[in-house]
């Protein structure tokens, strides 16, 4: 086995490739969101969404803002490190628009 | 559950997020390679590499060229659709260089 090809790239790939991380980034690039908003935006369970947000928080990609209102309001947003992934998400979107056919998508629905 | 956020983006994300696809693209962006070269470049088993290459062939991202020499030579390369992923890989590399710390990588080794 060759010594790691590019350790930093591998680590970034591992993170971005985690199921639903791409979609969560896609959603948060629209701006800060409450948990319930993300839950209704995304086709994943609340528990899994909460796990992924904790992971992304630990990785410094997402930050959680607690507003001491009544009831308390919690908002998730991308940190600087998170927003820096926007070009990656944009390039994936460009590629998808150019190369993923309607049939490939309809078959899935 | 909200209707799919962006079906094409989701399908692209699903494909790129498959374990080792990012690294295989990274490797093939250097140019056509034989199976044995890829096997020694990448930290994955031959069987898994073969599975991933079959998937990428089916998706039209990788193409296989057979040279009728003796012994026969088989080379893998990126198709046009595959090469069009270069900006995605480049942006991931840029992000990784800027935001993945040395410690995060050393801890893994």
Automatic annotation (TrEMBL), chains A, B:
Residues 6-104 form the HTH hxlR-type domain. One of its GO terms (molecular function) is DNA binding. The keyword Transcription regulation applies. InterPro entries: ArsR-like_HTH, HTH_HxlR, WH-like_DNA-bd_sf, WH_DNA-bd_sf. Pfam families: HxlR. Keywords: DNA-binding, Transcription, Transcription regulation. PANTHER family: TRANSCRIPTIONAL REGULATOR, MARR FAMILY. This is Putative HTH-type transcriptional regulator YvaP. It comes from Compostibacillus humi.
């Amino acid at each position: 086995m060759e010594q790691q090809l590019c350790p930093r790239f591998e680590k970034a790939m591992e993170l971005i490739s985690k199921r639903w991380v791409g979609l969560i980034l896609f959603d948060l690039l629209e701006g800060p969101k409450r948990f319930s908003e993300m839950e209704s935006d995304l086709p994943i369970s609340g528990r899994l969404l909460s796990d992924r947000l904790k992971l992304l928080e630990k990785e410094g990609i997402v930050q959680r803002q607690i507003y001491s209102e009544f009831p308390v309001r919690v908002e998730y947003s991308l940190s600087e490190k998170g927003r820096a992934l926007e070009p990656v998400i944009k390039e994936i979107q460009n590629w998808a628009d150019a190369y993923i056919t309607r049939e490939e998508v309809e078959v899935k629905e």
